[in-house]
Design goal:
rod-shaped; three-stranded antiparallel beta sheet; 2 domains; binds phenylalanine; BirA Bifunctional Protein, domain 2; alpha+beta; seven-stranded mixed beta sheet; 10 strands; single chain; 11 helices
Length: 388
């Protein structure tokens, strides 16, 4: 081991000279400045602040200096190393900032771009409405009943107290099903007079969901509470207010002691569930062969709440300033219908009501054209919050 260096001799420890320390410091600062990535900065740190860094090695030599030179050299090296660490810290922060900004740019997701999932389809708003309407009754204890769309005339008409020659057959423009051999049926057979062409296959495309009443009465035990949503057909041209194929939902209750009060209550509960409580309903006389007495149900306009009727009030587009909106046909089940199904009308009574699903949808959502429900434009469906 060499003896303590009593006479300060800067030449003996060149690495500790002011010029050498400055050179090492400058080299370090230049390397730190030149580092353009965090990895490069790490290399610069190892080279200039690591165990083998020139200033670290120089510092190890301080002990060999004469005492009066130690403090001076120690301060010089210490200051240089602090500058280097400071520069590394600043460069580190800057490079991390750059990297984070870079990540934000390269990993940016443009949420407004069209998605590339394969559309899988979704249920149509009319279907959803029919289900919602049915659910209201299911919650009241009704069962869902379904029937065929190609229906026997007997179910669609006769059993519902609409005999072949009855003018009521013409209330609904019926689509008749041809006989398989294409021949016209016997005169006076099912097909009805005045319902051209008289094909007489005995089958029709059901004109309403009421035949499901008959099917339910014939097959289900009493008391009976059913609701039947489904597609119905009429010989109508498609326009802004008519569809040749549309949906109805029908309710039927047959029990001992049912009265019109029960019918009113069911209808009110239905309107409350769909439009919120507080809208009045009213019944006015109407005619349906299968109900007696019959009525049509109106509800107070849910948009203007009757205000538009008042003099000087703003007109209402929804109720055409009538204050009321017709929503359903209804009545007490005609005893003849009960008899046709083998039910004793002295013991049982019932009520029924039927309404158009598209119309309910249009009312609830302010849709003007019934055609929109069949156009198949997904923009219509999407407006109902459906994922398509
Ligand atoms: N079936 C009738 C129609 O389509 C509606 C209705 C159903 C009326 C039940 C009264 C009772 O016009």
């Amino acid at each position: 081991m060499s003896a303590p260096n009593k006479n300060y001799d800067p030449v003996a420890v060149t690495a500790l000279s002011a010029a050498e320390v400055d050179r090492a410091l400058e080299a370090a600062l230049a390397a730190i400045e030149a580092a353009s990535t965090l990895d490069e900065l790490k290399e610069a740190r190892l080279a200039h602040d690591g165990d083998k860094a020139p200033l670290r090695l120089a510092r190890a030599e301080i002990g060999a200096l004469p005492p009066e030179a130690k403090a001076d050299a120690g301060r010089r090296v210490g200051a240089a190393m602090n500058r280097i660490r400071e520069a590394i810290g600043q460069r580190q922060a800057q490079l991390e900032r750059n990297r984070d900004e870079q990540v934000l740019v390269t990993e940016r997701v443009d949420v407004t771009l069209p998605f590339d999932r394969t559309p899988e389809g979704a249920r149509h708003p009319v279907t959803m409405t029919a289900e919602r309407l049915a659910d209201v009754f299911v919650a009241m204890g009704y069962e869902v009943a379904e029937g065929p769309e190609v229906e026997a005339e007997w179910y669609n008409f006769d059993a519902l107290n609409i005999p072949p020659d009855h003018p009521a057959r013409e209330m609904q423009d019926t689509l008749f099903v041809a006989r398989p051999d294409g021949e016209p049926g016997p005169q006076g057979g099912y097909g009805g007079t005045g319902s051209p062409p008289m094909l007489g296959s005995g089958m029709v495309l059901r004109t309403h969901t009421s035949p499901v009443q008959i099917r339910s009465l014939l097959t289900r035990p009493l008391p009976l509470y059913v609701v039947s949503p489904g597609k119905v057909y009429r010989n109508e041209a498609l326009d802004a207010t008519h569809l040749p194929v549309f949906y109805q939902i029908e309710g039927l209750a047959v029990d001992e002691g049912l009265t019109m009060a029960d019918l009113r209550g069911a209808i009110q509960a239905f309107v409350d569930a769909l439009f919120g409580a507080g809208l009045r309903t009213r019944l006015r006389p109407d005619y349906f062969p299968f109900t007696e007495p019959s009525g049509d149900v109106s509800m107070e306009c849910h948009v203007c709440r009757g205000e538009s009727v008042k003099p000087g009030a703003d007109p209402c587009r929804i109720c055409r300033s009538m204050g009321w909106i017709e929503i359903a046909g209804c009545g007490m089940v005609n005893p003849r219908v009960l008899v046709a199904c083998g039910i004793d009308p002295d013991r049982y009574s019932g009520f029924a009501f039927g309404l158009g699903v598209e119309r309910a949808l249009m009312l609830a959502h302010g849709v003007n054209e019934i055609r929109d429900t069949v156009d198949g434009d997904v923009r219509f469906s999407r407006a109902f919050g459906m994922e398509i």
